[in-house]
Amino acid sequence: MDKLEELIYNSFDVVVFKKDTNGKFIIHSRPTDWLLFFLNHNSEGTYRLTQYFPYLGCFIDEAERHWKSGKIEALTSGPWVEADEKGHELALEASAIKIDGEDILLLQNLGEKYRQEVQRLQSLREGLLSQEKLENEIAKRTRHVQQQKEQIAIKLVSLTSYRDEETEAHVKRIGLYAAAMAKALGWDEQRIDDIRIAATMHDIGKIGIPDKILLKKGKLTDEEFEIMKQHTEIGANLLGDSNIPVLNMASTIALCHHERWDGQGYPHGLREKEIPVTARIVCIVDKYDALIHERVYKKAFSEDVVTKLMKEMSGRSLDPELLELFFELLPIMQRICSEVTDKVTDNRNQDPYELLEEIRLSDIA
């Protein structure tokens, strides 16, 4: 071995072996101290390396195939760690290469290079953990903001609840139903949260309807019904002209949730996809909740009856494609219906956001 080779081997802390015909390895460079330790200070020059480095067993099998292939590029084992006689960890790496028809095995002590790489990866890992903590904190604060928005919305809606049969649980359910459908449609998280809040305000315009009409038990006259229909525009005006996206969405829903797929709705007689999708969603879920629950003017209908009635509305008052999606999500809607109630025995302080999170993680593809 000439001085140049020796200098290279020493610089890279590499030991070179040639494989003989018996599957043993003949050392071709000066053995290093760390190698002699693992070889039990056996300096005879020919070794069955897998006896001293069991980890090499699997790699040698790959190396044999590599040598036989005749490829000139090196095949590396990847680093592994051994401990020296003082308990210090050594990171080693093996490489198989074909040179002038010889099967060559390089065994390298990675030393400082490996430690630096470990430190780099550790630093990267800590950075990712810090980023995850930051993202979790942002998500927590975002959720807090969403909860505040919802509380404001519920307080606004409660102004009409004192005068109408609608309850806090009803408007929360409408928001959750709508959010479940938005999730199934592939909306982003922000729009899902926005419709969950905006949908609760769909009937806020009823605050401007006189009590004698709003609270009337019997059928409204044509004149009274024309006044009642004004709640859509009143609600839109109350919520509109804002730079807050959730209020703009709420304004659209308030204005259009009584439009019909066939164009026979109000206030503008929009038809089919002229009606904003948010309003089409709320129209469906509001119908479902009204039918499935008892009201001053009606008893609650059974699930079968509700399903039949809503199917009859398909293509008439309700968007047929969205209605089909609604029926696919019916088990989720039933769960919302059963868990968000006004009964004293139920958990009225239940966080709708948490319920939706559970539902969308487990049920909605």
Automatic annotation (TrEMBL):
Signal peptide: none annotated. The keyword Hydrolase applies. It comes from uncultured Thiotrichaceae bacterium. PANTHER family: CYCLIC DI-GMP PHOSPHODIESTERASE TM_0186-RELATED, TWO-COMPONENT RESPONSE REGULATOR-RELATED. It comes from the Bacteria. CDD domains: HDc. Keywords: Hydrolase. This is Metal-dependent phosphohydrolase. GO terms for molecular function: phosphoric diester hydrolase activity. InterPro entries: Cyclic_di-GMP/3'3'-cGAMP_PDE, HD/PDEase_dom, HD_GYP_dom. Residues 145-342 form the HD-GYP domain. Gene3D superfamilies: Hypothetical protein af1432. Transmembrane segments: none annotated. PROSITE patterns: HD_GYP.
